[in-house]
Amino acid sequence: MTSSRSAPPARHLAATLERWPIAGAFTISRGAKSEAVTVVAEVSLDGLTGRGECVPYPRYGETPEATLGAIQALKEPFAAGMDRQPLQTQIPPNAARNALDCALWDLEAKRAGSRIWNLLGRGAPAPCTTAYTISLGTPEAMAEATARAAHRPLLKIKLGGDGDPERIKAVRRAAPNAELIVDANEAWTADNLADNLAACADAGVTLVEQPLPAGRDAALARIKRPLAVCADESVHARASLEGLRDRYDAVNIKLDKTGGLTEALAMADAAQALGFDIMVGCMVATSLAMAPAMLLTPRARFVDLDGPLLLAHDRDNGLHYDGSLVYPPEAALWG
Predict the structure, then answer these.
(1) Does one domain contain both 149 and 113?
(2) Catalytic residue check, 169
(3) pLDDT of 26
(4) With 70 as the cut, is the pLDDT of residue 291 above it?
(5) Based on the domain organization, do 98 and 209 belong to the same domain?
(6) Which end of the chain is more exposed for a tag (fewer CB within 10 A), N or C?
């Protein structure tokens, strides 16, 4: 006997690769780049379209082309009704899943005619202070860049290994009143760890992000840490949290690592239950990639959502930045 129930309306999935010039260059310990390459997923139904943006990251074996292909390969499952929950189990936490998950949240909010925080039963995120990144360079170049940004209340300083004590001293002289966090991007070693941490502590740094390579960070459990240390490359989704408790004081939650907002929200709950402070981070991307992460900011000790500030220009209807103060997204952008 044929069922009388009609099939659900088909959703249309599309994806595009975009290139966004960076203002100058963005330099970390693994190299420099002059543009941000992002992939945008769009899920359409009943004349409405939800969008999500991700940044494929070579550090995790991702490329823009492979990420674009991974999203496009899901056109039939999406047309057949794949939603956020099956997405969590059928695709690993990566950039592709992030774009899809955030696009589905955006579509859900549009179909409900409501803001996403209302769907989640939360209040709207308040404006908050984001870090502003100073790229890696010589002590002199970093001091010059820091002096131009010294009016900002929170600076994130990219370090790179050899010469880092001199870099952080130069930065502190250039911005005596700013709160400083530093990001070594896995560039330190067990041999220079103690000296570099001491130099940061002497300069009044609040937090050091990912000093040692992921998988080779056991030394952090064997020393007395003079300031808080945050995991970035060592932490991805919830499954990675438990093994980090003896090494880190905080975790950096990035949606491209968690595979989207769904897992990021659950991960924030789990991280706080384990006693970690939370940092909300980003890759260099447009406001469309930052917008979902704003949902995590009420729980974050540190917010690092300055990606659009590092671009030559942002997309239309981007987040509003007033200096270092970032405001939640308008519905025209996302959610």
Answers:
(1) no
(2) no
(3) 84
(4) yes
(5) no
(6) N
Residue at a domain's end among 69, 101, 119:
119
pLDDT, averaged across the chain: 95
In a domain, 314, yes or no: yes
Number of compact structural domains in the chain: 2
pLDDT for the residue 88: 95
Single-letter amino acid, residue 6: S
3 within some domain: no
In a domain, 1, yes or no: no
Handedness of CA 110, 114, 117, 120 (dihedral sign): negative
Residues 78, 167: one domain?
Answer: no
Q: Which domain holds residue 167?
A: 128-326
Q: Active-site residue among 110, 158, 169, 257?
A: 158
Instruction: Please choose, from the candidates 56, 22, 21, the residue with its C-alpha nearest in 3D space to the C-alpha of residue 39.
Output: 56
Asked about 254 being catalytic, the answer comes back as: yes
What is the rounded distance in angstroms from the CA atom of residue 270 to the CA atom of residue 237? 10
Would you give the distance in Å from CA 25 to the centre of its chain?
Answer: 19
CB half-sphere exposure, 246, CA atoms < 13 A: 7
Whether the Cβ atoms of residue 181 and residue 205 lie closer than 8 Å to each other = yes
Distance CA 19, CA 283 (A): 14
